[in-house]
Structure prediction request, 225 residues.
Amino acid sequence: MRIDFHVHTTRGSSDSNLDPLLMIDQAHAIGLEGICITEHDNAWTDPEIEEYARDRGVTLFLGIEVTTEWGHVGAFGLDRYVGGIYKVKELRRIIDEVDGFLIANHPFRYKLDPRFQFIHKTTPIDQANPVSGSQALEVLEYVDAIEVVNGACSEEENRYAQAVAEHVGCKRIGGSDSHSASSIGCAVTIFERPLSTTRELIDELKAGRYSTGQGLNTGELRVFP
Ligand SMILES: [Zn+2]
Ligand SMILES: [Zn+2]
Prediction:
């Protein structure tokens, strides 16, 4: 089951121009079987939209992309924003209470380019060495997985995230980070079995039976472990 793990819609993200129904039509058109709706700092469900999706062979799952002190973290297991989760340690505590799952989203976006280094005020990352990146990411200690394929990141940023995930032995996720229809499915996570609820999805995330892929939106899906 191919699932795009990272999508923003007009219903919950002010920076998105992706209508939820258009999102479902596009998923159906390219053969994407699941979408995680991951709005910025909020969550919604709508039985009518879920049914519209189901009728087209698309299952919707619920996550939140939480803005934290250490960057964006994909959180699964919450159905609404909870105060205090801006702090990653608090987010981890609350996610543990609901037996959820956390993903470090696009961890190296803009962090490899020396021109942007002044924003992050961190020691420069050595692209040839994954140890350097793992040490630079405080959030790594608190997440279950790294988003290693993000549709809005550069190839270098994604490749480096993969190298770091390999180095620390972390699970790997792919998601498009779509804010419009054309990029849906450009990055996916591929599960061995079909899943129908967010709870099942979380359990399978913990079990680790999946791989990541790129290019479903253009009909050229490439899968890598
Ligand atoms: Zn983000
Ligand atoms: Zn995002």
